[in-house]
Design a protein that fits this description.
Blueprint (H helix, E strand, L loop, with lengths): L14 H44 L4 H16 L1 E9 L6 E7 L3 H6 L10 H8 L5 E3 L21 E8 L2 E11 L7 H38 L10 E7 L9 E8 L5 E8 L4 H18 L6 H14 L6 E10 L4 E9 L5 E3 L5 E3 L19 E6 L3 E5 L11 H14 L5 H10 L9 E7 L7
Antiparallel strand pairs: 1-2, 1-5, 3-4, 4-5, 6-15, 7-8, 8-9, 9-10, 10-13, 11-12, 11-14, 14-15
Helix pairs in contact: 1-2, 1-5, 2-5, 6-7
Length: about 450
């Protein structure tokens, strides 16, 4: 049986438009809901990406790494092929630094010798109008476009957003050409604006970190002794603070020449990374220098006396140290006498590049037990021998056995056995096996050649 039409005529054909009328609103609503759900999913993905970006950027503390991370994150969030961060000069008029990412090795080679952008033309628009994000679909059509230098890859669309630090414009994020070929849209602009706010906080944190680290390093260096003239011996030193901000250490070195022609070398490390450790280091190195000036004072005796005095004055700190004396021993030879209080063994480097760690019985660290003797050890050295005294920050890595760091140090020193001491020093700075989590102090002493002795 069929439903009759309104005019009374029977027939099934009238059912089709009727059902279509029922289906059309429902289909339209479902489509609209589907679009809204898709937009919501996309927004959630963008939000998740932005939150991950915040964690990524704020997890960095070194300013160069922070700036590069900001650019890379902005590229990932927007799908941009190219990205850059321009840092303004002190006056805020030009770009003093320009950090580009996304260029291939060939594109970089094509730009070799080309001056980095200073913020003229279209890039300068954002410098003069920092409150307005710059979104351009066709750069070549913009009135301020001045073209690219020779060798520059073609770029079409641009999105630029300013970064402010403490209410002052620090620089600009520049993004070019989405990977999908579409121009940047309002969603890209909103995400990068949000990223720029996070970037400003991350940059400020990195700057504060650097300031605190610099202040700690300056304070630590003030506590280190001024290296006296030890000629005809040669001596070089290295000091590097730990990577952590405000991480004061108890590492120190010292070297003095005695009236009899001997040279005393000292390296030490007070356990701890605070003002107490730094103050204790200053006291201990002063007492140890005074004790080592005696021409007949053996290194072991100097360490024992220091331990006794610290115990009597209740200035006991757990300290490792190594005291060595290099004394004349006839023409062309020297005698090395040393005593070690729980410190890493010195590295001996002979003129023929033979290396050896002086790992004789180390003895206990200072501040442990006054009754245990402090043994002295002796070894004959030829002229031109080098002894590297160091603290554990030079060779320790958290993810590798200590033996690997010691082997790397010996290999670097062997390559510079007969070269200038400055070259060895620079090589140790450039190739230090340690990971920077601890302070590092190094004292390098070389025995004179026969003509100088």
């Amino acid at each position: 049986m069929t439903r009759e039409s309104p005019d009374g005529a029977g027939g099934g054909s009238a059912d089709v438009p009727y059902m279509s009328l029922l289906n059309l609103p429902l289909s339209s609503d479902l489509d609209r809901i589907g679009e809204q759900m898709h937009a919501l999913a996309q927004a959630q993905l963008r939000l998740q990406g932005l939150l991950e970006a915040v964690l990524s950027i704020t997890g960095e503390l070194e300013l160069p790494a922070v700036l590069r991370r900001i650019v890379r994150t902005a590229m990932d969030l927007s799908g941009a092929r190219y990205g850059a961060l321009g840092v303004l000069d002190e006056e805020g008029e030009f770009l003093a630094e320009f950090i580009p990412l996304g260029l291939s090795s060939q594109e970089l080679a094509n730009l070799s010798g080309v001056e980095l952008p200073r913020g003229r033309g279209l890039l300068g628009h954002l410098i003069h109008h920092p409150d307005e994000p710059l979104r351009v679909a066709e750069m070549a059509a913009h009135p301020e476009y001045v073209g690219f230098p020779p060798g520059h890859p073609p770029m079409r669309s641009l999105l630029g957003v300013a970064i402010s630090v403490r209410d002052r414009v620090y620089g600009n994020i520049y993004l070019c050409d989405r990977e999908d070929g579409q121009p940047f849209d309002s969603h890209d602009e909103g995400v990068i604006l949000a990223l720029a706010g996070t970037a400003g906080v991350a940059i400020e944190n990195a700057r504060l970190y650097q300031q605190e680290r610099t202040s700690a390093e300056q304070f630590q260096r003030l506590l280190l002794p001024r290296l006296l003239d030890v000629s005809p011996f040669e001596a070089r030193t290295i000091y590097r603070p730990a990577a952590s901000p405000g991480h004061l250490g108890g590492d120190w070195y010292d070297a003095v020449k005695l009236p009899d022609g001997s040279c005393t070398a000292i390296i030490g490390d007070v356990v701890g990374h605070d003002l107490n450790a730094a103050a204790a280091m200053s006291q201990i190195r002063g007492m140890l220098r005074a004790l080592s000036f005696g021409e007949t004072t053996a290194p072991g005796h100097a360490l024992a006396e220091l331990d006794r005095i610290a115990h009597m004055t209740d200035e006991r700190f757990f300290t490792t140290a190594c005291v060595a004396r290099i004394e004349p021993d006839g023409p062309g030879n020297w005698t090395l006498r040393w005593s070690n209080a729980g410190h890493p063994p010195p590295l001996l480097v002979l003129p023929d590049a033979t290396t050896r760690y002086l790992d004789a019985e180390p003895g206990l660290p200072l501040g442990v037990d006054l009754t245990v003797p402090r043994p002295d050890h002796t070894l004959t050295l030829p002229c031109g021998s080098t002894v590297v005294f160091y603290t554990d920050g030079l060779v320790e890595r958290r993810d590798e056995p200590l033996d690997q760091g010691l082997a790397a140090l010996a290999a670097t020193a062997a390559r510079h056995a007969d070269g200038p001491l400055d070259a060895l020093r620079e090589a140790l700075i450039a190739n230090q096996p340690g990971d920077g989590h601890d302070d590092m102090a190094v004292l390098i002493v070389r025995t004179p050649d026969p003509l100088d002795a």
